[in-house]
Design brief:
This protein has 2 domains: 122 residues, 3-Layer(aba) Sandwich (Rossmann fold), CATH 3.40.50; 206 residues, Dihydrodipicolinate Reductase, domain 2 (2-Layer Sandwich). The protein is 32% helix and 22% strand. The protein has 11 helices and 15 strands. It has a 9-stranded mixed sheet. The chain has a 6-stranded parallel sheet with strand order 3-2-1-4-5-6, sandwiched between helices. A hairpin with a 5-residue loop joins strand 12 and strand 13. Helix 1 packs across helix 10 and helix 8 crosses helix 11. The longest helix has 20 residues.
């Protein structure tokens, strides 16, 4: 740590996600400071250095991982680079948070988890939506028994995105998969967190938009990843789950946040989280309709977080709590949640969806990772 006792954080990849989530979250935390940045695009790197007032900058992520002035790193780079950077960071003794999916497949994610575990560093997967107030409250209702025994999980994530190039995200070699790995994997994670391990899945993916030109009309190689994904799952508990995601749902803009619906039907009641109103939950029991209920103040942010829940767009600002949890785990010398282990468990299920679709069958999920 720095002489002031602050956790010194290096950002590896300084694009939109870092600027939107991680840097604003870090700026709220007096226990930490931004000490270094890295990006392979020199122009963007220089721009961010000026915007954020950072003097230490490099285009080499491994170099940043070995700087003494860095205690922890946040990885927000293309998916095919996550494993090598995270493993290098762990070997250098740096705590590490990584964007999802952690790797191109479960084998890569396992290597990341084992490196972090073996070198005793805090590790965290950026499953942002776990921190939405309505999701935090839904989890509390479920774990307290207020909804009874969970029977069904249901997830919809519908986005209305342009049908132009996604850049590296639209190529399997760099991204692993499309909507399944980029969006649906979040929902796989919080289904496991809410209901428990998934025992088996079947599913399908599809690509509808060729994405063979960029927004300016310049041609590019067409996409070879999915822009629609779905799965049906059975949990070890006996509960069932249904997930669907797409980036091609016309009319689902909602100020750029799209449509998100995550629902639990229990033996005593139902509850729904929605992204566009993350501070409101829908609740219903037999004989009544689902009705909006404000999330209690205790669930609007983690205890101790300096964030003011009344400031900023609700569907944006809860994302800052991801960084709060990462820094808290480092300062308190405890595991972070969600961890690389959570990322691994979700990746095993996502990989199984691709396998199930390819073979047109159900795929058994091995027991949860240790």
């Amino acid at each position: 740590m720095s002489r002031s006792g602050k956790v010194r954080v290096g950002m590896i990849g300084v694009g939109q996600v870092t600027a939107y989530h991680h840097v604003p979250g870090l700026a709220l935390d007096s226990r930490a400071e931004l000490s270094a940045i890295c990006d392979t695009e020199p122009g963007l790197l220089g721009q961010r250095a000026n915007e954020w007032g950072v003097s230490r900058a490099t285009t080499d992520p491994i170099e940043l991982c070995n700087w003494e002035e860095v205690d922890a790193v946040v990885i927000a780079t293309p998916n095919d680079t996550h494993a090598s950077i995270a493993i290098a960071a762990a070997k250098a003794g740096k705590h590490v948070m990584c964007e999802k999916p952690l790797g191109l497949n479960a084998g890569e994610v396992r290597a990341m988890y084992e490196a972090a575990r073996d070198h005793g560093v805090v590790h965290m997967t950026a499953f942002t939506y776990r921190f939405a107030p309505a999701m935090r409250y839904l989890r509390s209702l479920l774990k307290s028994g207020a909804l009874g025994v969970p029977r069904h999980f249901r997830s919809q994530r519908f986005l209305d995105w342009p049908e132009t190039s996604w850049g590296w995200r639209q190529y399997r070699a760099r991204a692993g998969a499309g909507d399944l790995f980029d969006m649906t994997i979040h929902r796989i994670d919080f289904a496991i967190d809410l209901v428990g391990p998934i025992a088996r899945v079947t599913g399908a993916v599809a690509r509808f938009a060729p994405r063979d030109h960029d927004a300016a009309g310049k041609p590019c190689p067409p996409s070879d990843v999915d822009d629609w994904s779905s799965l049906i799952g059975e949990f070890e508990s006996g509960a069932t789950g249904v997930w669907e995601g797409t980036t091609l749902a016309k009319g689902y803009h909602r100020d750029g946040f799209g449509h998100e619906w995550a629902e639990i039907n229990g033996s005593e009641g139902s509850a729904v989280y929605r992204l566009h109103e993350p501070n409101v939950i829908l609740l219903g029991k037999t004989g009544s309709d689902l009705a909006p209920t404000p999330v209690p103040s205790a669930f609007l942010k983690p205890e101790g977080s300096p964030r003011d829940p009344s400031v900023g767009a609700p569907a944006t600002v809860f994302r800052y709590d991801l960084m709060w949890e990462f820094v808290s785990a480092i300062v308190e010398k405890r595991p972070a949640a969600p961890s690389f282990l959570d990322g691994w468990n979700a990746q095993v299920v996502a990989d199984a969806v691709l396998d199930a679709h390819a073979r047109r069958t159900w795929v058994e999920i091995p027991p949860s990772r240790p």
